[in-house]
């Protein structure tokens, strides 16, 4: 009997979360803002994946004869370069399309780094308590004491800018929220009956964490991750705007805005259009994240 | 109360030491700083400089020396300016803090009335419009907001200078840019904290007493909603200073942010360390003050 109890409780919890999941999914799918956001993201991701085939021109191909061609709807525009060309005659649309790759790649990868570090720290903090909790709490406090962008900038510059450095540094400067939220959830969950029951029948600590506690924190981790990807994309754009991007070999949106700033008096489109690309992408992610939070919020179930 | 203060002060000191450790490690993340100072020099000269700078000592010794020096405001000579790095940073601090204060004032002036309106008239057209603005604002890179404002007001309409700092007209665009970055954040917090209190019993009692709605909101609801605003301002101070760094770069404002960004590009580590350290210490101190203030404002916290 004592052995049967936790199994039954676990089954109940899992069943409840699946039923809650489909209800949450329906709430999410019926929301217009969530639908629009998801559709935009789907387009963005497809375009980024298919960039070499979708982009009308080679993003690096220069042409001094076609410098500062305005977008096609302005006088002097050319339908072959729908969004105009830059100061060395490169096609802006093709560069924006290729730039989507870096933004999305860095955004998602940096958040994965944060997620692994932050969730592990939060689980350790919540479960072990005591000195471990104090130590991790201090590390969180310390890393929240720096302006993220400045610290990332300094470390990327010191380590030498590269795509991997940017991903790792952004990941390691954005994990604190995961640690805090997961720790709080663990503290609440560890007092729950199904965890106590598992402990009572002698299930190991690690197994309790992985099999019983972690699955119950998934919804808040998913919501947080979505919103964090938006933040990471903005941070990557800021880094490459400040000139510590992944190098000049590949176009990024932040770097395009930075170059466009120098020509703001002669070519408005150079800084404006890549910024719109960031705005649309980040807005779509924020909309999806916000709706996910509403849909998964247990208080409204 | 004093036990709380002592515990909080202890944490403040520990976090300051942690901040020093991170700042200290910036220099060492570059591998060999001496190779950056004199890239063409022969190894013998580099070794001499390494000894002179104390870079051949064991890391713990170097760290203790770093903390001792940092406490006295000594971060060494700037590689580039040949002046003490700390002085260069301190000189530019008033500009950065001035810009930040202007932006926060502007943001609060907009966010408080709009946030209250949103909460009181929840789910009306006005509330939805405000929410849409919050979403838009939080999805725009701050440096892009700056360039767009510059494009309109300085290039297109020629109303304001493109960049600089000092005259009132040159402060408008940077302050509005940083303000536009900050406003959505405040709007969201004010709206949600007003929503939390607006239906509580004591607010209903105030209404039932026959007080005007205006008085109920300003005197009773807003006072309790103000606490989260103070806390979040403290927590988001780092984000705010990060925004200031980007704004300064866009408008060539001679503040700490622009100095540090320039120094990072030239790998001028003493300035980078002094600047990052000082900004972090300001953030830690602000959070410490907010915590203490919070306890004074909210007696229920004292029990924990």
Return the structural class of chain A.
Answer: mainly alpha
Poorly predicted residue ranges of chain A: 1-19
Largest interface: A-B, 44 and 50 residues
Overall spatial form of chain A: elongated
Overall pLDDT metric of chain B: 88
Number of helices of chain B: 13
Distance between the termini of chain B: 10 Å
Q: What is the string of helix and strand elements of chain B? A: HHHHHHHHHHHHH
Strand content of chain B: under 5%
Helix tally of chain A equals 12
Largest sheet of chain A: none
Q: How would the global form of chain B be characterised?
A: flat
The proportion of residues forming helix of chain A, as a percent range, comes to over 70%
Major pleated sheet of chain B: none
The secondary-structure class of chain B comes to mainly alpha
Structural descriptors:
heterodimer, A: mainly alpha, elongated, disordered N terminus, B: 304 residues, mainly alpha, 13 helices, flat
Q: Short summary of the structure?
A:
Chain A has 301 residues and is mostly helical. Chain A has 12 helices and no strands.
List the helices and strands and how they pair.
The complex is a heterodimer of chains A (301) and B (304).
Chain A lengths: L3 H26 L2 H18 L1 H4 L37 H37 L1 H14 L4 H12 L3 H10 L3 H14 L3 H8 L4 H37 L11 H10 L5 H29 L5
Helix pairs in contact in A: 1-9, 1-12, 2-4, 2-12, 4-5, 4-7, 4-8, 4-10, 4-12, 6-7, 8-10, 9-10, 10-11, 10-12, 11-12
Chain B lengths: L1 H28 L3 H5 L5 H10 L6 H13 L13 H36 L4 H14 L3 H15 L11 H31 L2 H8 L4 H23 L1 H15 L4 H10 L3 H29 L7
Helix pairs in contact in B: 1-4, 1-13, 5-6, 5-8, 5-12, 5-13, 6-8, 7-8, 7-11, 8-10, 8-11, 9-10, 10-13, 11-12, 12-13
Word description of this protein:
The complex is a heterodimer of chains A (301) and B (304). With 301 residues, chain A is mainly alpha-helical. Chain A is built from twelve helices and no strands. In chain A, α4 (92-128) packs parallel to α7 (163-172) and α8 packs antiparallel against α10. Chain A is elongated, with a radius of gyration of 23 Å. Mean pLDDT of chain A is 87; it is low at 1-19. Chain B has 304 residues and is mainly α. Chain B has helices at 2-29, 33-37, 43-52, 59-71, 85-120, 125-138, 142-156, 168-198, 201-208, 213-235, 237-251, 256-265, 269-297. The mean pLDDT of chain B is 88. Chains A and B meet through α5, α6, α10, α11 and α12 of A and α1, α6, α7, α11 and α12 of B.
């Amino acid at each position: 009997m004592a052995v049967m109890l936790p199994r039954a409780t676990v089954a109940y919890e899992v069943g409840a979360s699946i039923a809650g999941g489909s209800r949450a999914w329906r709430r999410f799918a019926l929301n217009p803002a969530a639908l629009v956001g998801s559709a935009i993201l789907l387009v963005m991701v497809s375009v980024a994946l298919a960039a070499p085939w979708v982009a009308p021109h080679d993003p690096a191909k220069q042409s001094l004869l076609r410098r500062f061609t305005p977008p096609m709807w302005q006088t002097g525009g050319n339908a072959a370069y729908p969004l105009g060309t830059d100061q060395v005659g490169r096609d802006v649309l093709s560069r924006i399309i290729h730039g989507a790759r870096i933004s999305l790649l860095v955004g998602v990868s940096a958040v994965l780094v944060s997620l692994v570090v932050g969730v592990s720290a939060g689980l350790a903090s919540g479960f072990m308590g005591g000195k471990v909790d104090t130590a991790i709490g201090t590390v969180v406090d310390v890393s929240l004491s720096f302006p993220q962008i400045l610290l990332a900038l300094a470390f990327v510059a010191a380590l030498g800018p590269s795509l991997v450095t940017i991903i790792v540094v952004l990941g390691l400067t954005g994990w604190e929220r995961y640690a805090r939220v997961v720790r709080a959830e663990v503290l609440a969950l560890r007092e729950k009956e199904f965890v106590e029951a598992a402990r009572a029948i002698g299930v190991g600590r690690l197994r309790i964490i992985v099999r019983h506690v972690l699955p119950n924190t998934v919804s808040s981790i998913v919501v947080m991750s979505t919103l964090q990807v938006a933040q990471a994309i903005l941070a990557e754009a800021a880094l490459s705007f400040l000139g510590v991007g992944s190098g000049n070999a590949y176009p990024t949106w932040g770097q395009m805005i930075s170059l466009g700033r120098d020509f703001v008096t002669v070519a408005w489109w150079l800084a404006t259009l890549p910024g719109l690309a960031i705005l649309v992408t980040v807005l779509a992610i924020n909309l999806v994240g916000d709706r996910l939070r509403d849909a998964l919020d247990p208080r409204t179930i | 109360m004093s036990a709380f203060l002592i515990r909080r002060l202890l944490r403040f000191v520990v976090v300051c030491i942690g901040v020093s450790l991170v700042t200290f490690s910036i220099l060492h993340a570059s591998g060999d700083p001496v190779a950056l100072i004199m890239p063409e020099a022969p190894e013998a000269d580099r070794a001499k400089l390494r000894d002179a700078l104390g870079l051949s000592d064991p890391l713990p010794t170097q760290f203790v020396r770093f903390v001792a020096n940092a406490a006295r405001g000594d971060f060494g000579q700037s590689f580039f300016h040949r002046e003490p790095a700390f002085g260069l940073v301190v000189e530019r601090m008033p500009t950065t803090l001035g810009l930040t204060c202007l932006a926060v004032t502007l943001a609060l002036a907009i966010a408080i009335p709009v946030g209250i309106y949103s909460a009181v008239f929840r789910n009306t057209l006005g509330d939805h419009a405000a929410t849409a603005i919050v979403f838009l604002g939080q999805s725009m890179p701050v440096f892009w907001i700056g360039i767009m404002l510059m494009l309109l007001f300085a290039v297109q309409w020629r109303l304001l200078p493109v960049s600089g700092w000092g005259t009132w007209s040159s402060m408008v665009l940077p302050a509005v840019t940083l303000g536009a970055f900050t406003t959505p954040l405040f709007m969201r917090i004010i709206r949600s904290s007003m929503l939390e209190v607006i239906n509580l019993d004591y607010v209903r009692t105030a209404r039932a007493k026959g007080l005007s709605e205006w008085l109920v909101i300003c005197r009773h609801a807003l006072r309790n909603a103000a606490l989260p605003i103070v806390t979040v301002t403290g927590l988001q101070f780092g984000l705010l200073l990060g925004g200031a760094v980007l704004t300064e770069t866009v408008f060539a404002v001679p503040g700490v942010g622009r100095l540090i960004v320039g120094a990072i590009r030239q790998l001028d580590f003493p300035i980078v360390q002094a600047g990052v350290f000082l900004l972090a210490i300001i953030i830690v101190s602000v959070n410490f003050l907010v915590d203490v203030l919070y306890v004074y404002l909210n007696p229920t916290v004292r029990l924990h």
